[in-house]
Amino acid sequence: MGLVDLFMYDLNKSPCLLKGANFDRWRLIEVVQPHVDQLIAELAARQHGVVSWRQLLALGLGRGAIEHRIRIGRLHRMHRGVYAVGHRRVSREGRWMAAVLACGDGAVLSHRSAAALWELRPSAAGKIDVTVPARSGRASRATIRVHRSGALPASEITRHQGIAVTRVARTLFDLAETVPRSAAQRALERAEGLQLFDLVAMQSAIDLHRTRRGSRRLAAILADYEDDELTRSELENQFLALCADHGVPRPRVNSQVEGYTVDFFWSAQRLIAETDSRRYHATRAAFERDRVRDAALTVGGYRVVRFTHRQIQRESASVAGTLLALIAAAT
């Protein structure tokens, strides 16, 4: 029996300890107890204000010491075996952490809740999504939706803001089979904007979970991203073919204009077409350079229009219509 256990046992049996009885023991425990509460506070600070029963036991508290803290309001029950420390008001991250702790070993935040933690979509109201190993006996409850996974390798989980969570690729995979395609597409686009998108990791998730329905859905969404694997010369040939097929005057290629090399240029109309891809234009630095360049060319009296690889490959008629309208307006 530890010192804190002994103190709690004696406190329950002999309240006179608080009045100075058995002074030597009280003095000793008075030294130990603040240290334990400091450890609890430090743990809670790392976990958004929440701790688990098992973690409290690991810190050296016994059952009586934990129950005493619950009675006097130092611990507030959130789930079975999970408590908020000091007060009941817990942040969104604290609720996520508490749900993961409540689901035991191997549990991770997942699906909609993981997407909210990664800032891929707004925080979903209602139940918190947690994935557990298939062998786990944990069941869903009022505020937690439990998902079981037969394949949850270490490569697909991590910690973000101190919370065990599925990595972005696995999160997007899970979303693909639980939300409408448009919502999954927006989350993927958001991941790209945050520079969290990893096409290789996404394809690995599809291969690993090929039998799940999310595999086909995610593959369809990713088809648009594979288009950007074109080389510059391949894209140049496709753009020139688009012009020829739709009656757009042939532009000059890779011309120097105002000190910049532009992709396609109609000199008589002072019209410039730039073709953007994630490979060459996705970084923040590239985005900034493109805007500085466009502003300089506009000041120089040129009209700059940008098209993505996907537009050139899949919306050629629309691209050609835009170019023909701009050429006609400038002629």
Explained architecture:
- This protein has 331 residues and is of the alpha+beta class.
- It folds into 3 domains: 3-85, no CATH class; 92-227, no CATH class; 232-330, VSR Endonuclease (Endonuclease, Chain A, 3-Layer(aba) Sandwich).
- Helix content is 51%, strand content 18%.
- It is built from 15 helices and 12 strands.
- A 4-stranded mixed β-sheet has the order 9-10-11-12.
- Strand 7 (157-160) and strand 8 (163-166) form a beta hairpin.
- Helix 7 packs across helix 9 (199-208).
- It is elongated, with a radius of gyration of 30 Å.
- Residues 1-32 have low confidence and may be disordered.
Topology:
Blueprint: H1 3-13, H2 23-46, E1 50-52, H3 53-58, H4 63-71, E2 75-79, E3 82-85, H5 92-102, E4 108-109, H6 111-117, E5 128-133, E6 144-149, E7 157-160, E8 163-166, H7 168-176, H8 181-193, H9 199-208, H10 213-226, H11 232-245, E9 252-257, E10 260-266, E11 271-276, H12 278-281, H13 284-299, E12 303-308, H14 309-314, H15 316-330
Parallel strand pairs: 5-6, 11-12
Antiparallel strand pairs: 1-3, 2-3, 4-5, 7-8, 9-10, 10-11
Helix pairs in contact: 1-4, 6-7, 7-8, 7-9, 7-10, 9-10
